[in-house]
């Protein structure tokens, strides 16, 4: 191989690399490289608190466009912040959300690279029967629709995370989400119960689901570089 294939990640805090003062919070983008050989380079551009809109407006997608090359990949996962009632973040699922996501797809394809769409990961939000309650709604539907419309590989992290969390169960999922007891961590001396973000163990589980999706989509150039 003449050059390493690069996987660029565009996304929010669920994927982002965390600073030392944010630990033990961990994004899946920090762990996915463990599933590949040194022939793959992970370029994690995901940033906390961004939506598909703000990521573009802050110039982050532009930075990716300047670096991405033919045969690279752009993994695109948003939605957590797109529904927030904030002018800088909000997108409408079936209009502006799809329009912004289309810009990411264009950046990849214009460079001869490969876009991959990911639906949003579910939160740890169970009903009394241990079934995950969907907080993303039409944002999941919109990504699935767009993937079909533009013939983009889809990794349905919404469906995959729902199955995983329900399999693990209400109590055991506290071991993968950012649940920290008081006194256990210097960054969270009073403890934290965060049902959106992950501990290192959880981030690796989510990364494993992404890799599962790569295999299901028969992305051979990546499968060939897996450990």
TrEMBL record:
UniProt entry keywords in alphabetical sequence: Hydrolase
Gene3D superfamilies registered for this protein in UniProt: SGNH hydrolase
GO MF, one example: hydrolase activity, acting on ester bonds
Keyword Hydrolase carried by entry: yes
Family matches, as InterPro entries: GDSL, RhgT-like, SGNH_hydro_sf
Similarity section: Belongs to the 'GDSL' lipolytic enzyme family.
Name this protein carries in UniProt: Rhamnogalacturonan acetylesterase RhgT
Source species of the chain: Clostridium diolis
Lineage of the organism: Bacteria, Bacillati, Bacillota, Clostridia, Eubacteriales
């Amino acid at each position: 191989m003449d050059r390493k294939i690069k996987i660029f990640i565009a996304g929010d805090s669920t994927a982002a690399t965390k600073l030392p003062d944010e630990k033990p919070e961990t994004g899946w983008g920090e762990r996915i490289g463990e599933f590949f050989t040194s022939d793959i380079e992970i370029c994690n551009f995901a940033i906390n608190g961004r939506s598909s809109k703000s990521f573009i407006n802050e110039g982050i997608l532009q930075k990716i466009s300047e670096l991405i090359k033919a045969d690279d990949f752009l993994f695109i996962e948003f939605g957590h912040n797109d529904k927030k009632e904030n002018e800088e973040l909000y997108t409408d699922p079936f209009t502006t959300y799809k329009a912004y996501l289309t810009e990411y797809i264009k950046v990849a394809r214009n460079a001869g690279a490969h876009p991959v769409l990911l639906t949003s990961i579910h939160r740890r939000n169970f009903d009394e029967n241990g079934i995950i309650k969907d907080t993303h709604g039409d944002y999941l539907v919109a990504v699935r629709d767009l993937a079909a419309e533009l013939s983009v590989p889809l990794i349905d992290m919404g469906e995959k995370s729902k199955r995983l969390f329900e399999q693990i169960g209400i109590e055991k999922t506290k071991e993968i989400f950012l649940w920290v007891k008081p006194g256990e961590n210097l960054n969270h001396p009073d403890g934290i119960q965060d049902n959106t973000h992950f501990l290192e163990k959880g981030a690796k589980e989510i990364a494993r689901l992404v890799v599962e999706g790569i295999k299901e989509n028969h992305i051979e150039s990546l499968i060939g570089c897996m450990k």
